[in-house]
Amino acid sequence: MSRRSARLSPKALAAVRAYLATSAEGGITAAEVDAMDVAWKQYGDDPTVRTGTVKMYADGVIESKTAAMLAPYVGTKSAGTPNMTAAEMNRIVAMFDQRGWQVQIHAIGDRAIRMALDAFEAAAKVNPAPARGRRHRLEHIEAIAPEDIARFGALGVIASQQPIHVALGDANQAVPKGPWPDAIGAERASRAWVWKSIQAAGGRL
């Protein structure tokens, strides 16, 4: 395919929609979120670019053993450390959810995934549904605990995964080996990137 033929037509370009996300870290205050809310309302959305989305980071990555896991990495006593406590994540997610923001959370390890799902569930219990609805999502979801798979559908949380990570990673082998699968072992590696299971359980991808 030539570069020319790969270009989007004007009609296709007119249908493209982009979301611009800001970021939030542990310790963010209600006053800071209020200021972000004012800016969002001031500039608003247009037909092709939307704001009102915030990204958080629950953990790191498996290769460096910084993703937050429920059990220690192979050959170590460390299970990684979340970037914030569960209580802090719940507080921040609830603040943004109350104001109608869409929250996306980087969560790779099974502990981080569970914390993020718990935070979305807690927010939905204390806040009425925003006028534009909820479209919260988790990013990456590389190693998930089996009991959390069905929670995506139950909570209406979008699973945002990247198949290219599998194609270029250590798991794309008949017998997975390398920094990623070696760090968590065969059993947990078998639960990697389970987008088909999430979809089959009613989750959105």
Description:
- The protein is of the alpha/beta class.
- Helices cover 40% and strands 14% of the residues.
- It has 9 helices and 5 strands.
- The chain has helices at residues 3-6, 10-14, 30-43, 86-98, 110-126, 151-155, 163-168, 179-189, 195-200; strands spanning 18-23, 49-57, 102-107, 137-140, 158-160.
- A 5-stranded parallel beta sheet has the order 1-2-3-4-5.
- The protein is globular, with a radius of gyration of 18 Å.
Using only C-alpha atoms, the radius of gyration works out to 18 Å
Question: Mean pLDDT across all residues, rounded?
Answer: 90
**How many strands, which pairing sense, and closed or not: the largest β-sheet?**
5 strands, parallel
Helix content: 25-40%
Helical stretch tally: 9
Order of helices and strands: HHEHEHEHEHEHHH
- Unreliable sequence segments: 1-5
Computed structural class = alpha/beta
* Distance N to C terminus: 28 Å
Short description:
By secondary structure, the chain is of the alpha/beta class. The chain has helices at about 5, 10-15, 30-45, 85-100, 110-125, 150-155, 165-170, 180-190, 195-200, and strands spanning about 20-25, 50-55, 100-105, 135-140, 160.
SSE topology sketch:
Layout: H1 3-6, H2 10-14, E1 18-23, H3 30-43, E2 49-57, H4 86-98, E3 102-107, H5 110-126, E4 137-140, H6 151-155, E5 158-160, H7 163-168, H8 179-189, H9 195-200
Parallel strand pairs: 1-2, 2-3, 3-4, 4-5
List keywords for this structure.
205 residues, alpha/beta, five-stranded parallel sheet, 9 helices, disordered N terminus
